[in-house]
Design brief:
The complex is a heterodimer. Chain A is mainly alpha-helical. Chain A has one domain. Chain A contains eleven helices and four strands; from the N terminus they run H-H-H-H-E-E-E-H-H-H-H-E-H-H-H. By secondary structure, chain B is mainly α. Chain B has a two-stranded antiparallel ribbon. The longest helix of chain B is centred in the first third of the chain and has 26 residues. Classes of the chains: A mainly alpha, B mainly alpha. Chains A and B meet through helix 3, helix 4, helix 9 and helix 11 of A and helix 6, helix 7, helix 13 and helix 15 of B.
Chain lengths: 288, 311
């Protein structure tokens, strides 16, 4: 029981981080990015590849992967998604276009990753056991949790206590009103999308230290991140943290008590309950 | 009723009759491609019945298709029933599943629906593998019938014809009109008194029914059924691409997309077996950036432009 609590909460740290990334992309840039999971796996692939070929510590990879993913996602937004934002007549049309375009990107990323590494991204990093309040877990989970909390906390402070952060939050509330008060909405949207992508890739590098991934697993993480964002309420950071904790705990409980193959089914069960009883999210103020 | 409507139906009927002769001329390799093509024609035409007018991208095709294939496998192999029993039961089960999914997600905005259907095939596959491993024992499921490729082809052609006829009737009915208004502006639809959720749920249930029917018909082709094989998420994406490539705005639009894409997809699978995912991604980008209304939409746009130039 205690084991479930500890490893579930440790897992939810990275989940919360990844959901924050998606939240920035969907809540601020208004792009439903279904290639999110593939960006995550790309981060994991970078960590795996650098570690196995040149023994680069995944923690160092995190530092390398963030600016690369930031630049990559900025380019994607600037050259592939912004034309869609401009041509769309309504939010609904933009959603359909961005969903299809990001599907395309996700398949292209998968195709590229398969040609780099077709098998599992298996490597051992900091996998020695460690004991926390009477429960044994592995050190890499604890480290990943610590780094996720550090980055997530930094992001939270940035959003709440800096000028740029407030601008990002303003755009998430209303694009039109932010434009009126002199915020450069396209710039902030691009920034939020790129930042979200960077955070997602970092999350992937962290997850790869304790979960073995492969090139085609991305969609599962996209689903999980989306479920967390919807459960927490779009644009709600505290909601996302609570939702990630719930998902992490439920998944770990299902995996240890019933079967590891049923974690996705457990996530779906949560999803259905949220849709039926609280579609605006646990902390959300308005429906999508 | 406009005469063009009857003409369209007449052309469709003539095409069905012509298509029925294909197995006489094609055999072996080409007949097997024809079966695949006919399967996608049925799937993507029925997909477009719901997703065409409403613009709700459904990725549940693979899940319903899998329900059809898997039920044929388990009912014939575990319960020694005749092929015809699952052929009737599976579509009803899938329709019930679609009804539940529709009730849970279609009252809300379209994003929830897309997300929900995105992982659906994978989730059902996990669930069935778990049930099979823990309660049924991991036996193989065999589907042994006397059907050859041309039998499957004719059955699929029949289903495709029925779907087309249904689509033709729906387009001229109150529900088809309601769906088009929903697709243009859902708020307007609600304000003019359309029960938007009911209209969407009915049509989504219909597509679930047909996807499972196609999955059940095609099952004898494999003779050995595994959850991993029938619940393929890729199928859902292929159906979306083919329908949108042709143009989901017209009933015959998906047909225009399926035929070339099936042949190209077959060719890619042979020539570049490892790059097929990459190719799938490029096809999506092509649709979004070059052919947002499909080939049919592009042709109509050109025709309008020529028409304007003349007048």
């Amino acid at each position: 029981m205690l084991d479930i609590l500890v490893s579930g909460l440790l897992l939810s740290g990275t989940y919360a981080l990844v959901a924050m990334g998606l939240n920035l992309q969907y809540g601020v840039a208004r792009i439903m990015n279904l290639a999110n999971g593939e960006v995550l796996v790309l981060g994991a692939l970078a960590a795996f590849w650098l570690y196995t070929t040149s023994q680069v510590s995944p923690l160092l990879t995190v530092v390398l992967v963030a600016p690369v993913s930031f630049a990559g996602n900025w380019l994607i937004y600037r050259y592939l998604l912004k034309p869609l934002v401009r041509r769309s007549k309504s939010q609904g049309a933009l959603e359909v276009d961005s969903i299809l375009a990001t599907f395309g990107m996700s398949f292209i990323i998968i195709g590229v990753m398969v040609s780099i590494e077709g098998g599992f991204f298996a490597y051992k990093y900091l996998s020695e056991p460690i004991s926390i309040i009477g429960s044994t877990t592995s050190l890499n989970r604890l480290v990943a949790f610590g780094v996720a909390v550090l980055i997530g906390g930094g992001l939270y402070l940035w959003l709440n206590h800096t000028r740029a952060g407030v601008a990002v939050r303003a755009v998430s509330v209303s694009t039109e009103a932010s434009g009126l008060v002199g915020i450069n909405v396209p710039r902030v949207s691009a920034l939020a999308f790129a930042l979200g992508g960077a955070i997602t890739a970092v999350g992937g590098a962290l997850i790869s230290t304790f979960i073995t991934l492969d090139a085609s697993i991305g969609v599962v993480f996209t689903m999980k991140a989306l479920i967390i964002v919807i459960m927490g309420g779009v644009g709600e950071i505290r909601g996302a943290i609570v939702a990630a904790a719930i998902l992490g705990l439920v998944e770990t409980a299902v995996a240890t008590l019933i079967d590891p193959g049923l974690t996705l089914a457990a996530a779906y069960l949560i999803f259905v309950l949220i849709l039926l009883f609280r579609p605006q999210g646990l902390f959300g103020r308005r429906a999508l | 009723m406009k005469p063009s409507g009857w003409l369209e139906l007449l052309i469709a009927a003539a095409l069905v009759v012509l298509a029925a002769f294909v197995p006489m001329f094609a055999n072996g390799y080409w007949l097997s491609i024809a079966v695949t093509g006919m399967m996608y024609i049925a799937l993507s035409t029925s997909w477009a019945l719901f997703s065409g007018p409403t613009h709700y991208i459904s990725l549940a095709t693979g899940a319903f298709f899998g329900v059809g294939g898997y039920m044929v496998g388990t009912m014939m192999s575990d319960y020694q029933l005749s092929f015809w029993v699952p052929l009737i039961v599976a579509p009803l089960v899938a329709a019930a599943l679609a009804l539940l999914i529709g009730i849970a997600t279609l009252r809300l905005s379209g994003v929830y629906f897309v997300i929900f259907t995105l992982g659906l095939a994978e989730m059902i596959r996990n669930l069935i593998s778990w049930i099979q491993n823990n309660f049924l024992g991991s036996r193989g499921l065999y589907v042994l019938t006397d059907f050859r490729d041309h039998h499957l082809y004719w059955m699929l052609l029949g289903v495709a014809g029925v779907i087309y006829l249904l689509g033709w009737i729906v387009n001229r009915s109150r529900i088809g009109f309601a769906l088009r208004i929903i697709g243009n502006d859902e708020t307007v639809a609600r304000h003019v008194g359309i029960n938007t959720a009911t209209a969407k749920v009915i049509m989504f249930t219909t597509t679930g029914f047909f996807a499972a029917l196609v999955g059940a018909i095609i099952a004898p082709r494999w003779s050995y059924i595994e959850p991993n094989q029938v619940f393929s998420p890729q199928l859902s994406f292929l159906v979306v691409i083919m329908a949108l490539l042709g143009g989901a705005g017209r009933l015959w639009g998906p047909l225009v997309g399926v035929i070339p894409f099936t042949i190209i997809w077959e060719w890619v699978g042979v020539q570049f077996p490892n790059q097929s995912t990459l190719f799938l991604g490029l096809a999506f980008l092509l649709i979004v950036y070059v052919l947002p209304n499909g080939v049919v939409g592009r042709i109509e746009q050109l025709r309008d432009r020529i028409g304007e130039g003349r007048s």
